[in-house]
Amino acid sequence: MSLAPLRPRYRESRYAYATVLPVVLLVALFTLYPIAFALATSLREVVLYRPWSTPFVGVKNYLDVIRSDFFLGAWQHTLTFAAGAIPLATALGFAIAHLLNSRTRLASFLNVAILLPWAIPTVISGIIWAWIFNSSYGAFNGALYSLGIIDSYVPWLSRPTTAMLSVLFAHVWKEVPLTSILYLAALQAIPEELYDAARADGAGSGAVLRHVTIPLLLPTTLIIVVYETMVAIVTFDLLYVMTGGGPAGATSLISYYVYNSMFVAFNFGQGAALAVLLAAALVVLITLYLRVLRTEEIYAG
Amino acid sequence: MNGRHYAVGVLLIALVVATTGVARGAAPVQLTFTVWSYSNDVILDNIKKFEAKNPGIKVTMNDFAWEKYTDVMTARFVGKTATDLAYSSDHWLQQWAAANWIVPLDDYFPQVATYKPDFAPYATEGMTYKGKLYGLPYYADTIIFIYNEDMLKRAGFTTPPATWDDVTRMALAMKEKKIVEYPIMFQFQDITPWYIEVFLSMVYSFKSYSMFDASLNPTFDREGSAALKVAQWLVDGMRKHKIINPASLETTEIPLVKAMGAGQVAFAVLPKYNLADLNTPGAHAQAGKFKMALMPGETHGTVGFVRFYAMTKMAADRGKDVRDAAWKFLEYFGGRTGGEFVVVKRWALEKGLGFAQLPLYKDPAIRAAINKWGNVTLEEQQSKVARAKEALTPFWGTWSLEFQKELNKALLGQKSALDALKAAAAKWKEMRK
Fold it and tell me: For residue B16, is it within any domain?
């Protein structure tokens, strides 16, 4: 018995660790360190205009934000927004991908054109939509008025419900191109033989959709739903530009309060506590999705 | 070493020492000056002229967007990025001074006291923290009442409103005669910084205008307060009389000015410089029809605000040379040069900016320039009854956002005006803790 036979394997593992080390270091620097720093900040009283005093306050920042009267309302707005944005972006993306997947002459042009809203910076699209929904000269009001649907211009962004619907519309408009392209890529990867076999078994288009397309698109759906959940919950710039979180805070999501704590009140301790809570909520939601949409079990079933 | 060599050696050393000393004495003092971006060409030209007048001083300008200015400056101060002189504003003064980022000028330059009598009281107040003056004014202005004279005449009125009841009466007449559906519009988006300034301007037009007592406890949420009268007037205007455009809740400054310029608004409360823009020929469909009136109300008081040049703690700590150079800079930009407010006057003449230096109202060139788009007599009168915002605590900015959100709840009919003010007062107390 000797150690000699183990050496190559040991050398191999050392080599493996050495090759992944740069990436691990980068991840540590740009992900783990900021997370740890945010956690540490959330446990201290860090007010930017009192930089000389940052005492450890334990969970006080967490308790303060949870007890504050904006916390529940902001979560209510955030979840309402997400509950509208996620299914709409997913379902519309699925429907548009189906249209794009049909072999038409315009397909390649449409594939590019559909991506345009996604390519526009969010702040710019926010400004565009704020103009479209403007109560004095907005194109949306102009179109409805010309068609005789409204008698006078409606202040869409000045009423809580219509303001929320308007920002939701703008958000979905921006997100649907990405979900469409993801679904399109997945659709094009489904082997044609599966459809042929289903049709040979007498399946109609509804049955093909239900038993072939949808199950095979589940992994993509999972990715889309997870991504759209994250985007909907942390979205900030679009709402900030379109409504400033108003009217009367009706479109203030939890991300707005993170910004507000940090860059208006300069209270980085509370801002970090809110950000940690937001991240924790996302982890919980994503874990739930992964449990509900476990593709291996669905396939096995 | 013989005597000759020794003498040459001494001579060389003396030469080196002398040269270094001269070089050190001749090196210009470097000042870093931060501004928010506005007419940077004018600022740079002013700096050029200042440097020509003061060859021993070099100024580097750094500019940042107005919207991001406080964030950037906070980061600069906390990160100790070299900053000697900076634009500042009345609503950041408490925060910056409390953090010791900027220093009181009286402590370093006692001669600044000679300028105080020249300043409008609201401007002095806006630059003062704990009894000490922190700056010399870059510009100062008031919030004013602007009306469309043509619309008013069509409604049958020859003089502008003098009280808020007059405003209601005239607006109802315009509505009835179908001159305009909503004669009044405000910039009341939740987060616009002008919201609270406009509200306070209306409050300051009443005799008992104070929002807080001497110990900074809120009094604005009491029955009979001026704030409640204004809040109720706004709620009635929007929900009962329907004379205030409901789109006010999504409106900010520029869209409001555009709507007014297009003839969709007859009355608005705006920072005064907008009047110059509204009456610029060709800039708006209704250009030339806009006039200012004293703020309607019992005293015609309003809010005056001031933006000023401040010296940082970093500059103060750099030594006497830098402090002396900083004073020369401050005096050139915000004070007198050769007996004239050179830079302040330039801003007023070229850009229509308001000023805190009251003697400038006597300047014929200034009077002629203002009368092209406004009314210098009324402006001076309004300036004298303007007052600085009260209780500018370090949390004032955060609180004002909460205040605005609460008042918008009243305007939407979600709660009464009194309940909205009570909620805003509760926020104040909570933040004060």
Answer: no
